[in-house]
């Protein structure tokens, strides 16, 4: 190893969208200030480390993806440690600390990290530091920052203990006793009163200080502002000393070229599997023009491909950034004339970034416009490290100070309110801070990969051979003080524009005639769901809860079930329930032909509700699906407890799925004549048995 073994620790990260890697890089950067060296690797690079023989402490940063899965980069590692033949003392020599990243909006919060943590414990590994679980719903930094702060003392204690166990007397690498170890934090500490930045020991304020002069700044906010905003703060924040992150080292070099050629094929940007380019053969608007949300159903022709799926599976659509926003970004960067020029992306010679390499989602050579259109998530909410880098590109003193505040610890609530919760993107920041003129290499270093968007299949290949349907709402981001213009979702807005010529006048029928011969095509790849499928035994009853576009996978379920009933008249089929809800019966009842499934016996029970329709009935009908479910408490309990049936939920988590889960817990408690805690335990058992299944989003 290149690291000094007396002060080395192994640092592994498993990332899906780059967040875990960014945090690992921050740990790597800070390690030097604490007299430690981090040997950092992606967890997938199993040829570069060996936990079976690892003697030094191990730090793991791991995210969660999908429905509680480890990130793609950790799949091989997880499969390896889950080998059931491994003995319980396999990792008895290993000491580790783990930081899990997740989002509590989803059911299996931090399950990627929890899975690895639990399995390492089962194999005998020991914690040298408590596990941290950071929640992106409220802000990762609320856990990440203090977890990293406490890591250094824990590492030093672990290394000191290791040296003692090895009988070594030389513990210079971990100077002094653990209790006396200074708690050094590698941060830039902004002192507004003297207008300079200091890198210093937060715990002891010792003489070991590095200073960095800044230009004098004017901290006076315009008098007309009466409350904080994205661009202005007020006391105490505006007068506070700030702890801001260290400046990330630059590591990308961009070279413009005079030569011409062709851009790479989109399929080369996808590492998840085979990509298929398929035509859109039908587009139907399912909602009325006056509905609050616009829902579209698209039908794809997959007959000339080997693409295969089951009802309940998801697939991903490769989408570009909005063309107008790309042009706008080129204009702001002063590169409007160079959009079609080819650029070569290389690692900067002499960079101080550990393990620097060209981002794999960016071709080594392509046009600038291709990179901004297909490779970078220009709508991404900027991370604090990006804000820190933007400080150096900002000439106006007031704007510079505000960016420093937004990336500082003291400004954490402002960052959460004005950036993260407001969905402020990079373009919005450039409008809000016009003196900020970042370089192209900075964008490539800090903007994450443009992710393909996932959708649930809303059809059955058995019912409609060679067809794949899906349903989505066109996402809208209204204008607000931090965002001067309204925007549509990256993928849903693009799809809506793409299929506008295909839209039919009929908006509520699956079997609309008059398919177009249009050659509009999109690129897709499979994202199978291992659990959200129909019961293997058709005689088992099941219940489906899918308000709004959450009904999408259940259309595929019912189509598949109908075809099975036609093909296997001698089979026994269990009863089926569907709970559907929307705002208005006449505006956004997406699939009124559900009655057809009811009439032909495919669907046994259909229960609907409309949350915004007024009622003249003496007793108002239930507004939401969770309210309807409570009306059928005995049936829910019978299906789940007596008949060992399945319960499926698809749709919004925060405003629906959690409410449904609460209703089911109450029903189970009531029917079992037990307390709520017992009901929660029963629901947890159903989840473990894969009989209570969710496909939800925030």
What's the short version?
The chain has about 700 residues and is an alpha/beta fold. Forms a multiprotein complex with MMACHC, MMADHC and MTR.
Describe, in plain words, how this protein is organized in 3D.
α2 links the parallel β3 (about 60) and β4 (about 95-100). Helix content is about 30%, strand content about 20%. α7 (about 385-390) packs antiparallel against α8. Among the domains are: about 5-160, Rossmann fold, CATH 3.40.50; about 540-695, Nucleotide-binding domain of ferredoxin-NADP reductase (FNR) module (Rossmann fold), CATH 3.40.50.80. It is of the alpha/beta class and about 700 residues long. It contains 18 helices and 26 strands. The two termini are about 45 Å apart. Strands 1, 2, 3, 4, 5 and 6 form a six-stranded parallel beta sheet that branches. Strands 17-14-21-12-13-18 form a six-stranded antiparallel beta sheet, covered by helices on one side.
């Amino acid at each position: 190893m290149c690291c000094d073994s007396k002060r080395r620790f192994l640092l592994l990260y498993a990332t899906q969208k780059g967040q875990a890697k960014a945090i690992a890089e921050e740990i790597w950067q800070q390690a030097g200030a604490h007299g430690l060296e981090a040997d950092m690797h992606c967890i997938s690079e199993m040829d570069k480390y060996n936990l079976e023989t690892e003697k030094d402490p191990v730090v793991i940063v791991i995210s969660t993806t999908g429905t509680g899965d480890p990130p793609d980069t950790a799949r091989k590692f997880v499969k390896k440690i889950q080998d059931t033949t491994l003995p319980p003392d396999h990792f008895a020599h290993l000491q580790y600390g783990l930081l899990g990243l997740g989002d509590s909006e989803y059911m299996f919060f931090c399950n990627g990290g929890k899975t690895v943590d639990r399995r390492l414990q089962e194999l005998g590994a020991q914690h040298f530091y408590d596990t941290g679980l950071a929640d992106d719903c409220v802000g990762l930094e609320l856990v990440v920052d203090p977890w990293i702060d406490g890591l250094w003392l824990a590492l030093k204690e672990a290394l000191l203990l290791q040296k003692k166990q090895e009988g070594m007397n030389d513990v210079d690498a971990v100077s002094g006793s653990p209790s006396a170890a200074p708690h050094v934090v590698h941060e830039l500490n902004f002192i507004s009163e003297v207008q300079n930045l200091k890198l210093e020991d937060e715990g002891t304020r010792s003489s070991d200080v590095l200073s960095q002069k800044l230009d004098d700044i004017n901290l006076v906010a315009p008098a007309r502002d009466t409350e904080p905003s994205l661009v202005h703060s007020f006391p105490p924040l505006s007068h506070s000393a700030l702890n801001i992150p260290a400046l990330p080292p630059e590591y990308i070099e961009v070279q413009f070229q005079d030569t011409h050629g062709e851009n790479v094929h989109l399929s080369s940007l996808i590492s998840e599997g085979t990509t298929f380019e398929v035509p859109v053969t039908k587009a139907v608007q399912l909602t009325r023009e006056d509905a609050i949300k616009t829902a579209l159903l698209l039908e794809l022709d997959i007959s000339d491909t080997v693409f295969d799926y089951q009802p309940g599976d998801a697939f991903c659509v490769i989408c570009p950034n909005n063309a107008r926003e790309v042009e706008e970004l080129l204009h702001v960067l002063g590169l409007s004339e160079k959009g079609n020029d080819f650029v070569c992306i290389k690692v900067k010679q002499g960079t101080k970034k550990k393990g620097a390499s060209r981002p794999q989602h960016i071709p080594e050579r392509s046009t600038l416009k291709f990179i901004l259109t297909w490779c970078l998530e220009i709508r991404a909410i900027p991370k604090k490290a990006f804000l820190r880098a933007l400080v150096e590109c900002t000439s106006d003193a007031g704007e510079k100070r505000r960016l420093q505040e937004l990336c500082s610890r003291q400004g954490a609530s402002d960052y959460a309110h004005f950036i993260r919760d407001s969905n402020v993107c990079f373009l919005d920041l450039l409008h809000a801070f016009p003196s900020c003129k970042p370089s192209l290499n900075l964008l490539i270093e800090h903007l994450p990969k443009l992710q393909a968007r996932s959708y649930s299949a809303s059809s059955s290949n058995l019912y409609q051979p060679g067809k794949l349907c899906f349903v989505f709402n066109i996402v809208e981001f209204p204008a607000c003080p931090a965002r001067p213009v309204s925007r549509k979702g990256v993928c849903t807005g693009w799809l809506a524009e793409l299929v506008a010529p295909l839209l039919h006048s009929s908006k509520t029928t699956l079997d609309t005639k008059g398919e177009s011969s249009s050659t509009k095509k999109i690129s897709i790849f499979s994202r199978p769901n291992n659990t959200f499928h129909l019961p293997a035994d058709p005689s088992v009853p099941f219940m489906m809860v899918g308000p709004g576009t959450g009904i999408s996978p259940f259309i595929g379920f019912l189509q598949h079930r109908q075809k099975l009933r036609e093909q296997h008249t001698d089979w026994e089929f269990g009863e089926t329930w569907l709970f559907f809800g929307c705002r208005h019966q006449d505006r956004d009842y997406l699939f009124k032909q559900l009655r057809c499934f009811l009439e032909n016996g495919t669907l046994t029970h259909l229960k609907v509700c409309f949350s915004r329709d007024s009622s003249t009935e003496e007793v108002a009908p239930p507004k939401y699906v969770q309210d309807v479910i409570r009306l059928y408490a005995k049936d829910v309990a019978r299906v789940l407890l007596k008949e060992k049936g399945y319960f499926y939920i698809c749709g919004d988590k925060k405003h629906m799925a959690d409410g449904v889960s609460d209703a089911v817990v109450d029903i189970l408690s009531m029917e079992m004549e037990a307390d709520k805690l017992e009901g929660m335990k029963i629901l947890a058992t159903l989840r473990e048995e894969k009989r209570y299944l969710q496909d939800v989003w925030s």
